[in-house]
Amino acid sequence: MLRNPQETIGKLIDKQGVALISSVDENGYPNTKAMLPPAKREDIKTFYWHTNSPSMRIKHYRNNPKACIYFYDKRFFRGIMLKGTMEVLDDKKIKKEIWKDEYEVYYKGGMSGGDFIILKFTAETGRYYSNFNSEDFKIE
Question: How far apart are CA 129 and CA 19, in angstroms?
């Protein structure tokens, strides 16, 4: 039983160099992609990533916001799956908060002139795996 899911899961997430995000395509199939860690995290409920607006995922999330994210600790063979919804944001305030000058390499037009766009994931439920056991939980 997780005694403090926010702390235990938060630490696991913060130590990972890769996040897996999943979307549902137009045929109802899951699509998973490795991403850099979230650019911003609010507890274990809300996560933000940046990506290119022409990305296939943007179309998926706009058509069907159901999403799943997964973080895996290879060293201790444990992981956390969070299910919820993914929003596509073109909000200047959150873009400014997340933007770093080194992103110019990926977004030629910069923060507001290119294809820089934000993904916001909001978790509803989770499943934690550790020590050959899994535990489901709701996220308030």
Answer: 16
DSSP states along 89-110? E--HHHHHHH--GGGGGT-TTH
Cβ-count burial 10-45 (b if 16+ within 10 Å, e if not):
eebbeebeebbbbbbeeeeeeeeeebebbbeeeebb
**What is the spatial distance between Cα 110 and Cα 7, in angstroms, rounded to a whole number?**
35
Q: What's the CA gap between 135 and 4, in Å, rounded?
A: 13
The answer to whether residues 120 and 46 touch, using CB atoms and an 8 Å cutoff, is yes
Q: Confirm if 41 and 13 have CB atoms less than 8 A apart.
A: yes
Q: DSSP state, 33?
A: E
- For residue 109, give both structure tokens: 């037009």
Q: What is the pTM of this model?
A: 0.93
Residue-wise pLDDT tens digits, 35-81: 999 999 999 999 999 999 989 999 999 999 999 999 999 999 999 99
C-alpha–C-alpha distance, residues 99 and 101, integer Å: 7
